[in-house]
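Lecture notes, continued. The same structure-token format from the folding unit now serves as the input rather than the output. Read the line below as a description of shape only.
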């Protein structure tokens, strides 16, 4: 089997419920590695994300460094040649 050439990266801030509502079907169906970078959410987003998306790698940042810098954290972490940055409220057409 050929290794994946694309990783999905989602930047989250208090977005666990939104990701679960909008992207569960997409993330469960995609065969690509998924990385969620949590931008120091003050709620329990990281715990919820780890429980709801066990296949995804979760990076919990200690402080909110903004979308762009959090995206760079994710881009440095992936091992595939390509990445797709997704907003947490993205919905797939039905």
């Amino acid at each position: 089997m050929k290794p994946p050439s694309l990783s999905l990266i989602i930047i989250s801030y208090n977005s666990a419920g939104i990701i679960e509502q909008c992207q569960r079907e997409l993330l469960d169906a995609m065969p690509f590695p998924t990385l969620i970078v949590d931008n120091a959410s003050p709620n329990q987003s990281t715990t919820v994300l780890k429980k709801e998306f066990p296949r995804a790698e979760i990076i919990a940042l200690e402080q909110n460094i903004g979308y762009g810098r959090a995206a760079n954290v994710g881009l440095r972490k992936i091992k595939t040649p390509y990445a797709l940055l997704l907003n947490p409220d993205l919905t797939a057409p039905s």
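Point for the exam: Residues 16-29 form the longest helix (14 residues).
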